[in-house]
Amino acid sequence: MIEHLGKSLSRRSGACSLCLLLLLLFCGLSAAAQSVSPEQVADLQKQVAEARGNADNAWMLVSSALVLMMTGPGLALFYGGLVRKKNVLSTMMQSFAMMAVVTVVWGIVGFSFAFGSGNPFIGNFQHVFLHGVGAAPDPDYAGTIPLQTFMVYQLMFAIITPALISGAFAERMKFSGMLLFLTLWSLFIYSPMAHMVWGKGGLLNAALGGRFPCLDFAGGTVVHVTSGVSALVCALYLGKRKDYPQELFRPHSVVLSFVGACMLWVGWFGFNAGSALSAGSLATSAFVATHFAAAAAALSWMAAEWIFKGVPSALGGISGAVAGLVAITPAAGFVSPMPALAIGLIVGAVCYFMVAKVKERFGYDDSLDAFGVHGAGGTLGAILTGIFASRYVNPIFKDARGNATASGLLDGNAHQVLNQLVGVIIAWVLAAVGTLILLKVVDATVGLRVSDEHEVEGLDLTQHGEEGYSVE
Amino acid sequence: MTKLEAVIQPSKLDAVKEALLAIGIDGLTVLEVRGHGRQKGHTEFYRGREYSVDLLPKIKLEIVLRDDVVDDVIKAIISSAHTGKIGDGKIFISRIDEAIRIRNEERGTDAL
Q: Is the CB of A251 less than 8 angstroms away from the CB of B49?
């Protein structure tokens, strides 16, 4: 048997050797006949680049859709469930209207103000009416995707940021006043802040050599601090809802809020991981950090509630998750999973106290806790980014020779926390002062607050002529 | 003709319906209401604020009956809806002046 095998094997190996020899001869002859030309190499390189670009573009388009979903229906549901039944539609409309209005404004001039070249504080008119925004990438922003993709991705951020503010003036703001106010807000507060942190020449731009490089991966300062602080100013300027706080208004549907919050969590992967502007490992890193922070913050908010109130509520769980997602927004692409966990744990508890204790102590009616969660969570997250950012996750700072240098405090760069503070303070001041001016302008022209009668009757009927839930 | 209104615990509705069916009562109207007698409410928590809710969900039955079956119905309801705790509910009896069947305009006890 073995003898037989041995004979057949040697016959086979002999045949194989002969085939191999013939093959080599053939290849050698073919190679001599035609070498690979520079044109072919260039063509192959082009195809590889295109494939890479297509992968990045696919992810970025999905991310754009995810972020839009965060506004509608994510935020619409989350906020809608928290208000009284008679105001559910008006609250949802405050988010939906942004999807419509900000899109138009962004297309005409908002994108240009944010991402045009301009000066350290605001862009210019180079992209007005989306001039020059086409299939070709802008390497300063994202070298592998069309500038149009970048524009539409950023648009989704521009949409959700003013929508967040509506949480502060829910149940008492005129629809017309809200439209005017948030349109102006988008142009004169959002676009400048976006420009400072992400635009060419921006004062705070860490990637493009800003004077005070502020690490803000997906918009902790640009989105959350600005909207949160504006929310506080709005709540104080507009005043409390009628009969607040003697009458405590319960959420009419925690179920809707629950669904909305879960959509926010999923959508946030587009918000944070999409801010990598590519489909590679940085996107993964940001994705993972985002998820871990959300989970940890949900737990710490629930723990705080369990300890201090005796029960962990569903609303507390989802609010905690949102707070964690807010805080990780500036840090997502700069920290590894364990620091993300730590950020979440800290912020969940802090935001719980902001919402459960501080609001009550100071008596302002930030109806849906836009300041307590976004303002406070965003500020804390931005500062914690300066502590936990690591060059091994994202080599954002480089020396003259192109070697990565320390990012955050624990990485060896104690100075970064100060830069983070600069970004945070600028966001606070721009939001607070800008909002106050805009509120006065709108108050003097269109008017801000509905009448007492309309407030009692409900905004769905008085502002929109509808009922959210009719009997038949 | 007698109108019988009974406010009962929502969890007892199925038992009461079955008890009524067992004694031949097959017409009734059920309302979802809120209210309380001496029963205390409960506390709910939303974002750290406490809300005391004292209007509790209840079920109200309304049945219009021939006078001769009223006592049997009262017995049936009490035996099926009773738990012995505060919050079991109440039964109210009143007189009905007229009853009319919409389908064929029958009147009086024929309409019941």
A: no
Do A237 and A431 form a contact (C-beta atoms < 8 A)? no
Structure ipTM: 0.77
Domains of chain A: 57-464 (1.10.3430.10)
Asked if B65 contacts B1 with a C-beta cutoff of 8 angstroms, the reply is: yes
Contact (CB<8Å) A313/B49: no
A305: contact with B, CB 8 A cutoff = yes
Of residues A166, A155, A176, the one with CA closest to residue A113: A155
Cβ A260 vs Cβ A321: under 8 Å: no
CB of B45 less than 8 A from some CB of A: yes
Decide if A309 and B48 are in contact by the 8 Å CB cutoff.
yes
Assign residue B7 the CATH number of its domain.
3.30.70.120
How many angstroms separate the CA atoms of A239 and A364, rounded? 8
**Beta-bridge mates of residue A361:** none
pLDDT tops 70 at residue A379: yes
* pTM score over 0.90: no
User: Residue B92: which H helix or E strand, with range?
Assistant: strand B89-95
Host domain of residue B84: 2-111
Q: How far does B49 lie from chain A, in Å, by closest CA?
A: 6
**Residue holding tokens 């180079």?**
A126
Q: Which residue of B has its CA nearest to A318?
A: B47
Per-residue confidence band for B52, with pLDDT thresholds at 50, 70 and 90: confident
Assess B42–A contact: CB distance below 8 Å, yes or no: no
C-alpha count within 13 angstroms, C-beta hemisphere, residue B35: 16
Contact A391, A234 (CB under 8 A): no
Domain count, chain B: 1
pLDDT tens per residue across span A202-242: 999 999 989 999 999 999 999 999 999 999 999 999 999 99
